[in-house]
Amino acid sequence: MDTIGFEQHDHKSCVQGALSAVEAQCAAHKLQFTPVRRRVLEILLSEHRAMGAYEILDVLRDEGLGSQPPVAYRALDFLVSHRFAHKVERLNAFIACTHPGQTHTPAFLICRNCDAVAEAHAEPTRGILGKAADEAGFAIEQAVVEAVGLCPNCREGHPACA
Amino acid sequence: MDTIGFEQHDHKSCVQGALSAVEAQCAAHKLQFTPVRRRVLEILLSEHRAMGAYEILDVLRDEGLGSQPPVAYRALDFLVSHRFAHKVERLNAFIACTHPGQTHTPAFLICRNCDAVAEAHAEPTRGILGKAADEAGFAIEQAVVEAVGLCPNCREGHPACA
DNA sequence: TGCTGATGCGTTATGATATTACATACAATG
DNA sequence: CATTGTATGTAATATCATAACGCATCAGCA
Ligand SMILES: [Zn+2]
Ligand SMILES: [Zn+2]
Ligand SMILES: [Zn+2]
Ligand SMILES: [Zn+2]
């Protein structure tokens, strides 16, 4: 099941599966999956939405795991740089990756009504953007693809908005 | 000539052309192209790069056109909402549109070495992202497409980076 | 003319996001 | 057991953005 995010699902196993995958990745690549890093990923996974760094920090602080911004940002940097989480630029927020370990270019569908975020996939080097980059002689290394709109639930709920 | 941005060009006429186009648009749509708004666009056009709001504000302040952040942000909101400028989310910065008036979905090629930004075009509702959105029942209204990499000049200058 | 609403601007204050810099802890290496 | 590299703790600061209020201007209208 390769859900892209707005459907109902077995959240508990979704969290467990992602955690296990990340653990395996860290073990395989000798990455230190420290308590803070692990906890931040757990928070992101369990909330299943994009969260600001300070929002995460609030949780860490309550749990005695850290109280200053760098604690949260460092953990997030680790997760993002290893693709266990992604930054949603449009929201200045972070979200757990829905398929850690697989190399991929995330693309996000962001609901402007309920703030739900789903992770899809982009292939930046293909399509019209890749063509433009080729013509310009630009070497794409990384891409941010984020669509803002209405998620299926909100289209139903507020048909006027659709 | 539909340049997408890294080449040398006749910058003076590039600025003039864009300004004229925006003036015409404003006249046609009864938009108030006030001195502050005009000056902010001129600054963005003449610098021909992505600039932070405070950087723009510094210029305005020197010229006696405004000294507090809301002055810059309000002018930028106007320019962005009418598509005379765009926000580059990845840089938290703003850049003049290279073809104001035409309805379009901008996509940016951002050089990580020299910070040059070129505007290309995306068609978010097509391609793999549009397909994913359709399948998910998500209605795309707007898209952020930003590629980070090396521009042609920097690829030459630092071949090791390429 | 005088009222009224809409829009833009001036200013203060504050909020939200992110980083620098330096000190400390600790495990792995030799 | 000294050295080194990596992670964490903490204070301070930098950067990006908005809320809220009041005033000025101008168009539409009684
Ligand atoms: Zn992902
Ligand atoms: Zn929604
Ligand atoms: Zn444009
Ligand atoms: Zn460059």
TrEMBL record, chains A, B:
GO terms for cellular component: cytosol. It comes from the Bacteria. Binds 1 zinc ion per subunit. Zn(2+) binds at residues 111, 114, 151, 154. SUPFAM superfamilies: Winged helix' DNA-binding domain (SSF46785). InterPro entries: FUR (IPR002481), Fur_C (IPR043135), WH-like_DNA-bd_sf (IPR036388), WH_DNA-bd_sf (IPR036390). Its cofactor is Zn(2+). GO terms for molecular function: DNA-binding transcription factor activity; transcription cis-regulatory region binding; zinc ion binding. GO terms for biological process: negative regulation of DNA-templated transcription; regulation of secondary metabolite biosynthetic process. Keywords: DNA-binding, Metal-binding, Repressor, Transcription, Transcription regulation, Zinc. Belongs to the Fur family. PANTHER family: ZINC UPTAKE REGULATION PROTEIN. This is Fur family transcriptional regulator, zinc uptake regulator. It comes from Roseovarius tolerans.
